[in-house]
């Protein structure tokens, strides 16, 4: 609701069109099952897309990291607004950091990627599978049930809860989900003009590259994979890392190219990164996970 409200305000400011919020609950919002058992990213998108198709709404706002990579017939991601912080953040009791959490501390997350990263960095921790919104997760730390939770910094920013963060986890050592920190505005094909003014070209090319690595590797939300791109001085950079489920193994690939040197820089760069990961044994590692 927080991110949809901000996008509704932005659309109104850009176009002068008054926007009405249409709340929709998805299976991903209401189920208490683990995300991997529910079937991954699509559980957050299907109900929204049904509402878009049947005309209950004209625009849906997705967290891009929760959106399946396969195109949806009849629907178009018409705008990717400027991306915000892509990092994960630790929210711990007593201002603790990942390194200062005591041995055996209970850390909550619903993400297989974060589980693998936590186990790789601190195998002594007790990782607890959790679901629920940001307030619910933070409350479990405040109530003493958990010592910490790992959340997306972008979500905390949108909710005005940056005060809960005790440590930002650096992208280089802790790559996050493809598209994390970015939103996707999806419309029915032909209605792109409704939101096109919110498109941020640099953010689009970066998240396209990240998500195409995910698509090529056929890695859904249950696969421990992190990716991060950037554009600097006309060059697109992309790095991706695949983990074993227990965090004991990882494979990394990083490549770059000049955007002007390719008709499809995001796709070409993603293909390079994915090929190198496959050559290193990514398929076997993900299969073992």
Structural commentary:
This protein is α+β, with helices and mostly antiparallel strands and 289 residues long. The chain has 10 helices and 11 strands. The protein has helices spanning 2-15, 27-30, 35-38, 46-53, 112-121, 134-142, 153-158, 201-216, 265-280, 282-288, and strands at residues 60-63, 75-79, 88-92, 106-109, 126-129, 148-152, 167-169, 183-188, 225-232, 235-243, 250-258. It has a 5-stranded mixed beta sheet with strand order 5-4-6-3-7, sandwiched between helices. A hairpin with a 2-residue loop joins strand 9 (225-232) and strand 10 (235-243). Helix 8 packs parallel to helix 9 (265-280). The chain is globular. The chain starts with a helix and ends with a helix.
């Amino acid at each position: 609701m927080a991110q949809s409200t901000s996008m509704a305000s932005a659309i109104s400011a850009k176009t002068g069109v008054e926007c009405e919020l249409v709340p929709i609950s998805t299976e991903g919002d209401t189920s208490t099952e683990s995300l991997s058992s529910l079937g991954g990213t699509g559980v957050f998108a299907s109900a929204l897309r049904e509402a878009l198709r049947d005309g209950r709404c004209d625009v849906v706002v997705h967290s891009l990291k929760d959106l399946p990579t396969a195109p949806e017939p009849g629907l178009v991601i018409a705008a990717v607004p400027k991306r915000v912080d892509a990092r994960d953040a630790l929210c711990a009791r007593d201002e603790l950091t990942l390194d200062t959490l005591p041995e055996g501390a209970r850390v909550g997350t619903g993400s297989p990627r974060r589980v693998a990263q936590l186990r790789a960095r601190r195998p002594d921790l007790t990782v607890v599978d959790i679901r629920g919104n940001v307030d619910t997760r933070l409350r479990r730390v405040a109530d003493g049930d958990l010592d910490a939770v790992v959340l997306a910094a972008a979500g905390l920013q949108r909710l005005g809860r940056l005060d809960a963060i005790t440590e930002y986890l650096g992208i280089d050592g802790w790559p996050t989900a493809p598209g994390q920190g970015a939103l996707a505005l999806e419309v029915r094909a032909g209605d792109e003009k409704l939101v096109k003014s919110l498109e941020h070209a640099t953010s689009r090319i970066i998240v396209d590259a990240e998500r195409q690595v995910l698509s090529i590797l056929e890695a859904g939300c249950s696969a421990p994979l992190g990716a991060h791109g950037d554009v600097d001085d006309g060059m697109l950079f992309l790095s991706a890392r695949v983990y074993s489920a227990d965090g004991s193994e990882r494979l990394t690939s990083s490549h770059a190219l000049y955007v002007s040197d390719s008709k499809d820089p995001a796709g070409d760069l993603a293909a390079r990164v994915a090929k190198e990961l496959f050559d290193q044994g990514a398929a076997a590692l993900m299969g073992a996970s």
